[in-house]
Design a protein that fits this description.
- The protein is mostly helical.
- The protein has a single domain, classed as TerB-like.
- The protein is built from 8 helices and 2 strands; from the N terminus they run H-H-H-H-H-H-E-H-H-E.
- It has a two-stranded antiparallel ribbon.
- The longest helix is centred in the middle third of the chain and has 18 residues.
- The radius of gyration is 14 Å and the shape is globular.
- The N terminus and C terminus are likely disordered.
């Protein structure tokens, strides 16, 4: 089974910095459209609670909220560079399958609000590239690859 809903696939042999990296990359993707949607946060909360328990969920959601504030201290180019560096480090200690699952997870996070903005698509492409995941080959972007469309309703 190669789906993010199978936590044993993504959590097996987890690197100690995995959750921190996941929150950093998730914060970047969630903010891609300029909005922090409740539905996207709820998706992330559910994932964390199911896979890590309530205590870690609270800790890492708090961290995520701090990351949203931290991002305001930087220009978009500076913040993008920080996220790129973090994502490339994450890529260094995850397998191809784990990186595919991460991209799938990020796509599900973005889809949680039932709208896919063009900026979110571009951000997903960037993150996938930094993770060394080919979205077109993976078949994971569904209708997200139609660049001429600015907003999709799910």
């Amino acid at each position: 089974m190669s789906d993010i809903d199978a936590p044993s696939q993504i959590l097996k042999d987890e690197h100690p910095g995995f959750l921190l990296s996941l929150m950093i990359v998730s914060s970047y993707v969630i903010q891609a459209d300029g909005k922090i949607m409740h539905s996207e946060l709820e998706f992330l909360r559910g994932f964390l609670e199911e896979n890590y328990g309530i205590e870690k969920k609270e800790k890492y959601i708090g961290l995520l909220l701090n990351l949203f504030e931290e991002s305001k201290k930087y220009s978009s180019d500076e913040w993008r560079a920080k996220i790129k560096e973090c994502t490339q480090e994450l890529s260094g200690y995850t397998t191809d399958d784990q990186r595919m699952l991460l991209v799938s997870f990020l796509i599900k996070t973005v889809k949680a609000d039932k709208k896919i903005e063009y900026t979110e698509v571009q951000t997903l492409h960037d993150v996938a590239g930094w993770l060394r995941v080919d979205l077109m080959l993976s078949g994971r972007i569904d209708n997200l690859k139609a660049e001429e469309i600015w907003t999709w309703e799910i």
